Amino acid sequence: MAFPTPGKPVRGSRSGQPIMALFDLLGRSWAMGIIWHLSAGPGTFRALQEYCETISPTTLNKRIKELIQARMVTKTLEGYALTETGEELFKMLFPLGKWAKDWAQNLKENK
Amino acid sequence: MAFPTPGKPVRGSRSGQPIMALFDLLGRSWAMGIIWHLSAGPGTFRALQEYCETISPTTLNKRIKELIQARMVTKTLEGYALTETGEELFKMLFPLGKWAKDWAQNLKENK
DNA sequence: AGCTTTGCTACACTAAATGTAGTGAAAGAT
DNA sequence: ATCTTTCACTACATTTAGTGTAGCAAAGCT
Fold first, then answer.
1. pLDDT confidence bin for A5, thresholds 50/70/90
2. What is the CATH number of domain A18-109?
3. Which residues contact A111 (CB under 8 A, 6 or more apart)?
4. Signed CA dihedral, A110, B89, B46, B63: sign only
5. Residue among A23, A36, A55 minimizing CB distance to B33
6. Do B13 and A7 touch (CB under 8 A)?
7. DSSP secondary structure, B40-86, as one string
8. Residue–nucleotide distance: A56 CA to D8 C1' (Å)
């Protein structure tokens, strides 16, 4: 399966705008979770599988291949790891961790 | 369909950690695209449908309901709009726009 | 009254993800 | 050397998510 390539139509957009290709890529199940996990250091297929709990090996394998094609992940001797591009992306995703907690708290209080 | 609720098991994670609920929510097709579009100002159902090009009304309707439940979107007189929470989220997503362009450029150059 | 726009719903079809099982290769123990 | 584990997947049947086309009721305009 092809990964969402900027400049080409992607799932959800014919325009091929980079941001839409990125949203398509990150929007696939567990893509952000994988990046989140690898930000803590390289991990094996099994480690990712365990971390992701409910991911099927089929999907994990697809997702890894897509992230490699997108140059966000590489295979190293210690397992899969973020590339420099992947690290950059993680740095932008990072604030979401803290924010998500506040969001969760707020939802809880005002339900 | 339920929206990913922090504290409960979500698609892709049984832990219910807020970040995972958020990733599940944003990871559904077009969720980030909708937020991205609404950041420019309120929009009607039809406007969103046009912007999203390939979204089906079925999915758009589901996504809107989920985002409303998650307190990121509300219905106003001028159409659907981001809540304050939604705006906050957008501000964190915003840098991705610029970054996506560089990423696309880089992919193009080194293929 | 008739025409348009809006915000949907219905439904059949396709694509994506899951869950369980199993396979081939490499490393470690006996 | 063979036996067992561990690892990185692949196969495949089932379930869930998303698409695409059609259409409908309510509101606004003329």
1. confident
2. 1.10.10.10
3. none
4. negative
5. A23
6. no
7. TS-B-HHHHHHHTSS--HHHHHHHHHHHHHTTSEEEETTEEEE-HHH
8. 13
Distance of CA A53 to the CA centre of its chain: 15
The values of phi and psi at residue A13, to 5°, are -160, 135
Confidence class of residue A14 from pLDDT cuts 50, 70 and 90? low
Q: Which window residues (56-95, chain A) lie with Cβ within 7 Å of strand D? A: 56-58, 61, 64, 79
Predicted confidence at residue A66, as pLDDT, reads 96
Q: Reduce the DSSP state of residue B26 to 3 states and report it.
A: helix
For residue B95, the SS3 value is helix
Nearest protein residue, CA measured to C1' of D8: A45
Per-domain boundaries in chain B: 18-109
pLDDT in tens, A63-82: 999 999 999 999 999 999 99
Nearest CA in chain B to A25: B27
